[in-house]
Write a structure and sequence with these properties.
Largest interface: A-B, 36 and 35 residues
Strand order of the largest sheet of chain A: 1-8-3-6
Structural class of chain A: alpha+beta
Oligomer: homodimer
Shape of chain A: elongated
Radius of gyration of chain A: 19 Å
Number of strands of chain A: 8
Number of helices of chain A: 9
CATH class of the largest domain in chain A: Mainly Beta
Chain lengths: ~200, ~200
Amino acid sequence: MLIRYPEIYAAIKRLADVPPEQWRRLEGRLSVRRFKKGECFIEPGQPSLEAAIVMSGLFRFYYTDLDGREATKAFRGKGELLAAYAELLDKRPSRTTVEALEDSEIMTVRYERVTALYKDHACWQELGRVIAEDHYRQRERREQELLMDSATERYQTFMKDRPDLAARLPKKIIASYLGITPVALSRITAPTRTKTKRSA
Amino acid sequence: MLIRYPEIYAAIKRLADVPPEQWRRLEGRLSVRRFKKGECFIEPGQPSLEAAIVMSGLFRFYYTDLDGREATKAFRGKGELLAAYAELLDKRPSRTTVEALEDSEIMTVRYERVTALYKDHACWQELGRVIAEDHYRQRERREQELLMDSATERYQTFMKDRPDLAARLPKKIIASYLGITPVALSRITAPTRTKTKRSA
DNA sequence: GTAACGGATTAACATAGGTTAAGGACAAAT
DNA sequence: ATTTGTCCTTAACCTATGTTAATCCGTTAC
């Protein structure tokens, strides 16, 4: 029996040492799902049971609060993981929305299929560990930015680190990711006065 | 051979299913270290090689930026883990300070002693995974607060979730954790006007 | 005891970012 | 071609929080 999705397997192998015969146990459980721009993979209140890998397209994670204000938590593109991670771990319904920003295609698997493998082979524990560590780093970095950098600095960092996304995204989404309003972002990008650093 | 630190072993067992014979392999590598109030377990620029468990006392993690401003990232007390986590993972020098807020005692182990065990028994991968997942949840929760809640709301959440810490900590440290100045915190706690929600 | 120091509070002022509203550009729908 | 809707920008005004500085209090050092 062959590897059916060599591209996904290669992506997984980059994270953890999953041998082919283990991979085949998961591979059979994968299903393809397609999303049109604007459709949601995860909506708040839904039980959060599936994880996925993005094959093509782009997704946005965001919180919505009681007043309807949203804050964008992350973007995920090709080869990246799609899951309401904290909610999966806690088996809680999601408070997060995961929305396709472009027409997209993903491979999904029920999360319990993965956790069921934990006891059979250390490679699955390793995969879980590496993914959790990756996620941790992203969150920590962002926490530090939110705590210490002004909106202008966060904008500059974003433009430097993710020029690809900056080009693909409407500015209001970028503003939401930076934790500011579109109006505030317009002020930052306006040509006239340049303000750079939060004062000391 | 007996378990030498049953209390620590019990704490570990709560996280992952580490059998006694595996635990003994790590236990022999633990060393006790003591810190007086104000001393640092980790300082910026140091290579980050050790992880530890707090036996008694209290520690504070904080970033320092170029202008010397600090932002407190987390507190860790008895039974909790002490490590510059992202820096350990990346084998980078720490950008974080970990400072004892009270006279404290910890058990340390070189991080490589732990990673060396990963290949020998799945329980260590599991432990690593569970710890990373735990850390992830903490960061994600805080990111959401910073993104969506006003300083007043963050203060109220902190007082509700960690009344124990609120009682033990000077207010300037709490302010630093909330991402505001001591002056701003004083305003929030001032008796007169009560302001609660960020407007919609 | 007194001096020195660090933390907390308050006031006065400065500024970043939010809110509202209006207008313009562009795309999709009719 | 007109309409509609969405996004972007700009302006005017408002509020939360930062900054600086003065004062007070409690602790530690002398």
